[in-house]
Amino acid sequence: MSQTSERIREPSVLDRVDDRIKVLCVVAFVAAVALLPDGAWTRFGALAGLLLLAYLLGRVPLLWALKRLPLLLPVFLLVGLSAWISSRGESGMGTDRFLSVLVGASMSLLALALMAYNPGPDNMLRALQFYFRGSFLVTLLTMTHRYIVVIVAEARRMLRARDSRGQPPRVLDRARVAGSMVGYLFVRSLQRAERVGHAMEARGFTGVYPRGRVRPLRWTQLAAGLTFCAAMAAVVVIP
Length: 239
Known about the structure:
By secondary structure, the chain is mainly alpha-helical. It has helices spanning 2-5, 19-35, 41-58, 62-66, 73-86, 93-117, 121-131, 136-165, 171-202, 219-237. Helix 2 (19-35) runs antiparallel to helix 6, helix 3 (41-58) packs parallel to helix 6 and helix 5 (73-86) runs antiparallel to helix 6 (93-117). The longest helix is centred in the last third of the chain and has 32 residues, at 171-202. The two termini are 38 Å apart.
């Protein structure tokens, strides 16, 4: 994700919008998708059009986000199947609920992918800290984003060490080696987390990141964000 945020590209319309407005619009979009009734395909299409407009304004390649959908497809299918089973007794509602959950989850993931691409993970976390200052979830996300790079680097070193020693010929032996690597990486991550936690506590960290200088919101951008949220609310409310 950090590599994505550093991708060199031409400035877009979304680049000039405050990150706090972007986060607000994405949260409102996900809430609007969740509030849509089952089988409201016209409203789903309207929200999809708004999402596509945001992708075009941000000059974000839609294919980049679509490639990440299959990673969560098993989760979507499981949730949709659960919704379909819970509504089997209702005539014709099982299929609509299954498809609605599948489409809504995909659209929500595309919206979150847009927020990860623009404004990027760092700016997104700073915007979340503005709205949820002192929230444990935001602190956890910030710490995860900061130290996931360290864990990935450790995993790559372990993979290089494994490749230099050669892989076992049998599948069972390779699976045993992979399990040992996962367990060792988990233990190393816990040890590193404890050291980092003790070091931050010794420096006076209280669990809340200090807030830097907060720029005032421009009325034009705030009005544009509220207009976008009002359009999504109209899609949900108006039958």
